[in-house]
Each structure stands twice: as C-alpha cells, then as structure tokens.
Amino acid sequence: VGFPEPNGETYVVATLEGQTTISATTNAAAYNLPVDWRAEATSIEVVSNVLQVDYATREWDHARLTGTLTNGGTLTLDPVIADVPEGTFTIDATNSWGGDQEAEAYFGFTEFGMEHYAAFNLPIAENTTTGQFAISYPQLGNEYLTVEVSAFDATAYSSINYSKPTGAGVVADIPEPTRRLAPADGAVVGARTPFRIVRPEGQISVFQFYTGPAFGGGYNAFLTVYTDQTTIAFPDLSAIGLPIPSGTAFQWYVYSYGPWNSLDEALGQPTGPENPPGDVRYSGGALSDGSFITETLGDDYDDAVGVSAIRYEPVPEN
Questions:
Q1: How far is CA 268 from CA 80, 228, 311, 313, 314, in A?
Q2: Alpha-carbon span 224 to 289, nearest angstrom
Q3: What is the dihedral of CA 213, 219, 225, 229, to 10 degrees?
C-alpha cells in the first residue's frame, strides 16, 4: 500500500471470510500487510479496507478491495484511493462533580455480515470540564463507531461507552466515579475490617486484592471479588484451606461496571461482568491502588492464594 497522506496515516484492515481480521497502521510511503492464514480450503474470499487521513486538512480517503486469496499465496494491494465524505458525531458532556473530560472514538468496518474492530483514535476535541466534543469520521457506508466519553479527577474516573451510536450525537451526563473510602492506606486489616467504596447505582463492583514478592512481578495471592455491595470484608477462604495470610502486605483496587439489574445477571453474562449488553455501558474506578497489612493471626503467612472469582457477602453493620 502506498500514497499515504503527507500529514497523516494509512490504516489497512484485511478481513478473511469466516476467519479473522488483520489490521495495520503506518505513516511510511509504502508497506506490505502480511496475511497469516491457515485453513483446509484452498482459497478464501478477502476484503481489504484502506483508509487514509490527513490531519492537517481533516480529509479522508478510502479504497475497498475484494478478491480471492489462495492458500500459501500473498495479498497484493494497489488501491485506488478516493475521497469520501466526512461525518460529525457530537457529544454534549457534563458532570456534576467537576471532573476534567475527554472523549475518543474507535472506527470499524462491517464485512461478511460481521463487525470487524479496526480501531484507531479519531481526531477529538481537547479536554474540557464541560462542553462539546465533535468527532469527525469518514462515511463509507460500511463503517461503525464506538465512542467513549470520560471524566476524571485526582483519584478516580468514570466513563460512558456508546456502541454503534445512531444519529448525529448524544448528551452525556457522566456519573460520579467509584472511589475507595476505607481502609486508609497502610491500615492493619482483620477478618471483619470493612472495605468501603462509593459507587453509582445500577453498577456492580469488582474488588481485587493482590500481593507478591514484588508488586507487578508475580503474585503470591490474587483475589477478585464481584459484588453488588459497597462494603465487604477481605476474603477469608478458610473453609477451602486458604485462610487470611498473616502479617502480609497487600494492595487493592476497585472498578465498577453497568448497567446491571442484579449481580446474578452480571455473573451470568456470557461476555463477562465487564461487558453489559446493550449499546450504552458505564464503567469507573480508582486511579491508584490502596495498601494494607493483614493482622498477624498465626503461622499461615506462606499460604498462597490462587486466582479466584468470588461472590462475597457484605460485612455486617453491627
């Protein structure tokens, strides 16, 4: 592929029928897109979308090529790039808690009756506390957008994701994010110490606790707790032979996802609790990890807790 825009980039997506999608991005004058294909058939249909953007002029060019790829062969592209019209999708975003805002969009193609994620960030407006984002994109006839608008402050973030939005824009009121409230960093934690967060309604919480010989370099313990509560205890798995480690430094963080009607609905979702069905999704979480030390309860500090996904009950209030 050649002829990239002088002030932009070239994006190539090769979609093999019933197989996979290969994508690449470049700002070089010319390059090749390798296709690694293995199948019983001797040939397969392929569609290649070549998209170029000039960031200086905000102009889009596109070529769509169809053909047959022979097993063991190569795919040669010599596209005829043509101008395409540009559309604009707007986001009127606000939040009541004073977070700075940003927006981004991802662009994909529909081929062989399937959506093929061929993402790159589209040109967006600068961050603003409140205002409008105008996202420009090429109108090809087989494209789709995924748009996300977020707000954040020094401790947490909150996002709204619009999958395949219709129309020319949306009005987004970004909810206050999920935040860690307790325990304080460095606290000593026992079996009944409450871990408290604040979280928007209609979302579930995902607490994660981890420790290891070196944070980020492997774990002795990593626990994931999915819950619809905002207060839980540190998971004590004594019933299955994994008691709370003694005198051990841990870190923890928390996310939330929605909308969900219940925890059972979230845990029964085939794509996971992080991916609610529907075209509008919410997420948020703390921007940093908390730390704590478990109480010295006995000679069990060498216990290694395996990866788990646990439904945990809230801490009693009395």
A1: 47, 14, 12, 18, 20
A2: 14
A3: 30
Q: Show the tokens assigned to 272.
A: 């996971």
- Note the pLDDT tens digit of each residue in 111-168: 887 776 655 666 555 556 567 888 888 888 888 888 899 999 999 999 999 987 777 8
Q: Which long-range contacts (CB under 8 A, 24 or more apart) does 16-19 make?
A: 16/44, 16/45, 16/46, 16/69, 17/44, 17/45, 17/46, 17/112, 18/44, 18/112, 19/44
Alpha-carbon distances of 171 from 25, 45, 87, rounded to whole Å? 32, 41, 18
The H or E element that residue 30 is part of is none
- For residue 288, give every residue at least 6 positions away whose Cβ sits within 8 Å of its Cβ, in sequence order, or none: 155, 253
- Residues 6+ positions from 302 with CB-CB distance below 8 Å: none
Please count the other Cβ atoms lying within 10 Å of the Cβ belonging to residue 200. 16
Least confident of 30-34, 40-44, 116-120, 161-165: 116-120
* Cα pseudo-dihedral 224, 225, 228, 229, rounded to 10: -130
Residue 70: how many CB atoms within 10 A of its CB?
12
* Residue 316, token pair as written in the block: 């009693």
How many whole angstroms separate alpha carbon 76 and alpha carbon 1? Answer: 8
Residue where the block lists tokens 């940093």: 288
Closest CA to 279 of 254, 259, 255, 250: 259
Residue 318 burial (10 A CB sphere; 0-12, 13-18, 19+): exposed
User: What is the model's pTM?
Assistant: 0.79
Give the total residue count for the chain.
318
CA distance 269 to 100: 32
Instruction: Convert the pLDDT of each residue in 195-251 to its tens digit.
Output: 999 999 999 999 999 886 544 455 577 889 999 999 999 887 777 777 777 788 889
Backbone angles phi, psi at 255, to 5 degrees: -125, 170
